[in-house]
Structures are given as C-alpha cells and as structure tokens.
Design goal:
Layout: H1 2-5, H2 20-47, H3 49-56, H4 58-61, E1 73-78, E2 81-87, H5 90-96, E3 103-113, E4 116-124, H6 127-133, E5 139-141, H7 147-176, H8 182-224, E6 231-233, H9 234-251, H10 254-263, H11 269-274, H12 276-290, H13 295-319, H14 324-356
Parallel strand pairs: 1-3, 5-6
Antiparallel strand pairs: 1-2, 3-4
Helix pairs in contact: 2-7, 3-7, 7-9, 8-9, 8-10, 8-13, 10-13, 12-13
C-alpha cells in the first residue's frame, strides 16, 4: 500500500511529464483559484470591516503616552466622561498633596452641602483608571468624503490577504509539487509548517509588543518637535499597521528560507557565518523600511531578526557536525548563555532605556 502513495526511486519527478501548453493551462487555473480565494476573503473582510478596524486599533489604545518631566500628571474624569490629563506645577503639587505617585486619577462628582450643590473630587485608587490615563490619546479621523471608503478598501485588502493566505499557499504548493522529488517535498512540507508558525509569531510579536512601542515613539517625536499628535489620518494608520505586521511576519520567515537552502545544498554553515556583517546591514535596512522613520523602533525590529539569523547559523552548524551528541551539549550551553544575557538586558538595560525615553512602566 505504501507504494500507492510514495513515488518510487526510479521516478525522480513526482508527477507526469507535461507539455509547455499543459503547464501554461495549469498556471492559468492557479491564477484563477488564487484570485477567487482572494476576492472571497476580501468580501468577508469588507462586510466585517468595523470589527477588523477594532482589531487594528488595539495597539493604539494600549500604547504608552509620552509625559516629559517628573511632575505629577492628573487625569480628571466626570462620571463616564474623561475631562483630560493635566501636568501639575510644583506649587500645585504642594497645594493638592495627591501623594507620591506620579500618575493620579481624580474623579469629580456633585456634592450636596445644605441646600447647595457643588462639585467635589476624590482620588480614584482604581489601578485600571491609572493605567488608562498613561495610554496615548489619539483619534483616528477621515479628512475627506471618500476617506471611509478608502479605509474599507484597505481593510478588505490586507485582511483578505491574511485570510486567504492558507488557501493561496495550498494552491501554489499544489502547482509546484509535481515538479519536485520526494525528498524535496518533505523539506517543503516542513518549511511550510514551520514557516506558518514563525509568520504568526512575527505578526504577534509586532502586534502585541513592537507596535505599541513604535506608535508611542512616533507621538514622542511629534511632541519633541512641538507638533500636535492627537489626531491621525485613518487610512495612513491602517496602511502603516498592516504593512508593519506583514513585514515583521515575513521577516520571521528568514530562518525557514535559509535552512531550506542549506538542506538543498545551496548554502552551508561557513557561508552563513561569513555573511554576518551583511546580515546586520540587511536587518537594519528592513527596520528602516518597515517601521517608523526613527532609530529606536528600527533597532527594536532589527534585533530579533538578527537573533533569528544567529539561531539559524547555529542550526546549520549542528547539521554540519559528525558528533551530534557533543553538538547538542554545545547548543545547550550556548542557549543558556543567550538566555542569561537576555535576562540581564531586561533587568538592567531596559529600565535605563525606558527612563531615558520617559516611557512609563
């Protein structure tokens, strides 16, 4: 039964021999199926565009705001309405005496004194209120009558690409596989499986960690230049966030591409080790192209990409070793040393950097 599913060694190619016109016909059907999958996925995202926009706004609502200086910042709320954030002067801090915390939430409410009603206030100890006041206050707006339409098209396109990606990949693989040997198919299977996971890891890393930092840095630079950053164009925000996450996901595919080339014999460990200088330049250029035009976010993107490259080089080195048991012990020691360095950087370097950039905890 196994012979019914696996090609024999006498047949190096996995499929029947076809003429050029037959291959052209298969390619035409590939384009048709990919286009249909993309259009259907875009229609689904177009009908649910409001939900997709809500998802894309999450990094904006969780980005930390910039509060230069060391004076207390007070958030004033009246009922369910936010009045605003106010930075107190030295005299006001002494007069109000709101404690030692830098960020304080104050609730204003009506009070009855005899026959009169007055407004009073009290400190709100709710940690969620204190955390909410430290987030960015940016409103996404449309500045043209057709702005909402362009936003919907953008959401449909980027969301449709992500939704249809598994189906398009399946169609492409089905078109390419007949030309591959059985050994090459196994490598492609593994590359697709691991690559899909790394793509999701890259998008998640960008969405939950890197994107809020990039947006906060953008507002910080605007404030440093003396420019307001309370409103952003919705279509530009959607385009930036979508391209940023897509670029980060594709960047995390780097190990899969390199290791597949190593398995196919195109690259080897010595070549990868010799390319490390060029790789530093490449990841910095990718950070400059895919992120906001400032150094901090570019470095935040370049560092994980280069770490992935180093991990790839170590894996290629492991494959090149005749004594795999000794190589595994060496890799374990290297992984422990790397984890220790990352822990020290998080404990001692990151707090200093956050304080230098005036980013709240």
């Amino acid at each position: 039964m196994a012979d019914d599913f696996e090609p024999s060694e006498e047949l190096p190619e996995g499929g029947p021999v076809k003429s050029f016109l037959e291959h052209l016909e298969d390619f035409r059907w590939l384009l048709v199926k990919v286009s249909i999958a993309l259009v259907l996925a875009m229609l689904v995202c177009l009908f649910g565009a409001n939900y997709v926009v809500g998802v894309l706004k999450w990094p904006l609502t969780h980005a930390k705001g910039s509060f230069p200086g060391t004076n207390q910042v007070v958030s004033v709320r009246f009922g369910a309405n936010a009045v605003g954030n106010f930075t107190l002067t030295d005299d006001q801090q002494k007069s109000f005496n709101l404690g030692t915390n830098r960020f304080v939430a104050v609730a204003v409410e009506p009070l009855v004194l005899g026959t009169n009603q007055v407004l009073g206030w009290h400190v709100d100890d709710d940690p969620q209120a204190v955390a909410a006041m430290q987030r960015m206050k940016v409103e996404l707006v449309n500045l043209s009558p057709a702005g909402g339409f362009f936003v919907a098209v953008q959401v449909a396109f980027y969301g449709g690409m992500l939704l249809a990606a598994p189906f398009m990949l399946y169609f492409i693989v089905s078109f390419v596989f007949p030309a591959l040997k059985w050994k090459e198919r196994k490598y492609i299977y593994r590359a697709v499986f691991i690559g899909g996971g790394l793509f999701l890891v890259g998008v998640s890393f960008c969405y939950f960690l890197l994107m809020p930092v990039a947006l906060a840095a953008s507002q910080m630079y605007s404030n440093w230049l003396g420019l307001g950053a309370m409103q952003w164009r919705a279509e530009e925000y959607i385009s930036f966030v979508s391209k940023f996450m897509l670029g980060m996901g594709l960047g995390f595919e780097l190990p899969v591409v390199i290791l597949t080339l190593v398995k196919l014999g195109i690259l080897n460990y010595r070549m990868l080790r010799a390319m490390w200088r060029y790789m530093i330049v490449i990841v910095l250029v990718l950070g400059a192209v895919l992120t906001t035009p400032e150094v901090i976010t570019q470095v935040f993107m370049a560092v994980p990409l280069y770490l992935l490259y180093e991990i790839t080089v170590w894996i290629a080195w492991y494959w090149d070793q005749p004594d795999r048991a000794k190589a595994r012990r060496t890799l374990l020691l290297a992984a422990l040393a790397g984890a220790a360095l990352l822990y020290l950087a998080y404990q001692y370097v990151w707090p200093q950097l956050r304080q230098f950039l005036n980013w709240p905890e």
